[in-house]
Backbone:
């Protein structure tokens, strides 16, 4: 637990990609061997910290009240999902950035869960060939894109959520373009 607490503090203070495993071990008061036995790298530590927050969203998607949970139209659920992800990114973008090393974002259980959730909503909305859209629809909630909008473009979380809600409603509207054969 000391390791995760120390890492959370360091990740909140500066870019997680600049925090070294040695710094985490020192801040936690443990040896490097202890740290590496529990966590092979910085991304694994960030993933452990982020896991609890992602699980809460997953639980809401599966069993929560509409519109985030079952029972609402696909457009409303997709918009609510985007809203929940913006909230997660606003509170924990530093952790999400810390988990992303190379292609690691695309192989996490959470990303796979988000893909299945979005696909389920697109199928329910009868969007043709939904698989071609999954990564496109998840790209706006990547931490790099989110921080570009928040930090460099100075967009508010509400503005980002509004744009994503618009996207959700447009993509789930009656399809007008058929997929290529």
Residues:
């Amino acid at each position: 637990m000391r390791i995760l607490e120390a890492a959370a503090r360091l990740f909140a203070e500066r870019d997680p990609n600049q925090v070294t495993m040695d710094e985490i071990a020192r801040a936690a008061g443990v040896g490097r061997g202890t740290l590496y036995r529990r966590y092979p790298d910085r991304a694994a530590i960030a993933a452990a910290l982020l896991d609890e927050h992602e699980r809460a969203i997953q639980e809401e998607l599966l069993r929560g009240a509409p519109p985030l949970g079952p029972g609402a139209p696909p457009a409303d659920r997709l918009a609510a999902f985007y809203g929940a992800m913006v909230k997660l990114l606003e509170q924990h973008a530093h952790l999400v950035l810390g988990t992303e090393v190379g292609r690691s974002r695309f192989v996490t259980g959470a990303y796979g869960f988000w893909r299945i959730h979005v696909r389920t909503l697109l199928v329910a909305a009868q969007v043709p060939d939904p698989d071609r859209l999954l990564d496109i629809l998840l790209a706006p909630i990547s931490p790099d894109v989110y921080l570009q909008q928040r930090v460099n473009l100075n967009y508010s979380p509400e503005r980002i959520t509004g744009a994503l809600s618009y996207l959700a409603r447009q993509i789930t509207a009656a399809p007008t373009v058929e997929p290529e054969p």
User: Anything to note?
Assistant: The domain at 1-40 is CATH 1.10.10.60 (Arc Repressor Mutant, subunit A). Residues 74-99 form the longest helix (26 residues). The mean pLDDT is 89. The radius of gyration is 18 Å.
